[in-house]
Specification:
The protein is of the alpha/beta class. Helices cover about 40% and strands about 15% of the residues.
């Protein structure tokens, strides 16, 4: 297949994805559910972070999650420990989720019964950046064990996200993580980007992050009601 043909196919795929994503966004808006997607490289602690998020939000909010992976349902099983509704999306050879996959996975769920829906993307910092999933907010995660220059190596995914979350902060001292260098790396790629430093293991920083999500939900619903 020639290169121009490959480019045209990719454009068509992205166009169709955007059409479905817009439809999903309207469904989410109408139902009043706030949708948060999570992107990161493998090993960032994304699933542990999401499990903690679901567990801590549940006493006050109705939460659910979709989790994408190339194979196995291990992450869905882990997230189910939070007692929240969880569905696994197995992508096979695809290194990202697409809007159509999310749309299909939501079959049988009443979005009106949810406050928050979380979508955990496949562990990859390249492919997911191009695919809108209809989310209200996209978080990009990087752990202290990955180094401070991750945003410089993968600027597109940081530019496509709304918030940066630095995970595994309990290991920061052990791995000599330089917070100021990491902050400057993020700022150089996405000036003014909101950043959270936290540890899902110890709970450090989780309250600020959860309060931020609660404010986002309230603000979104107040806009819809106007």
């Amino acid at each position: 297949m020639s290169e121009p043909r490959l480019v045209e196919v990719r454009r068509n795929v992205l166009k169709q994805n955007d059409v479905i994503a817009r439809s999903l966004r309207e469904q989410f808006r109408e139902a009043g559910v706030f949708v948060v997607s999570l992107v990161s490289s493998p090993g960032s602690g994304k699933t542990t972070f999401l499990e903690k998020t679901l567990t801590l939000l549940q006493p006050q909010y109705r939460v659910a999650a979709l989790v994408g992976d190339l194979a196995t349902e291990n992450d869905a099983v882990r997230l189910a420990r939070s007692k929240a509704p969880v569905k696994q999306i197995t992508t096979g050879t695809l290194c990202h989720l697409e809007a159509a996959m999310v749309q299909n996975a939501l079959s049988g769920w009443d979005l009106h019964q949810l406050d928050f829906l979380f979508i955990e993307n496949v562990g990859n910092l390249v492919c997911p950046s191009s695919y809108d999933l209809g989310e209200s907010l996209r978080l990009v995660l990087m752990s202290v064990t990955e180094g401070e220059d991750k945003p410089l190596k993968y600027p597109t995914i940081f530019n496509s996200a709304d918030v940066a979350v630095i995970t595994k902060n309990e290991l920061a001292v052990a791995v000599e993580f330089d917070w100021e260098t990491a902050r400057k790396s993020i700022e150089s790629v996405r000036p003014g980007m909101k950043i959270f430093r936290l540890s899902a293991k110890t709970g450090e920083g989780m309250n600020d992050y959860l309060e931020f999500l609660a404010r986002q939900l309230r603000e979104r619903r107040s806009v819809v009601l106007k």
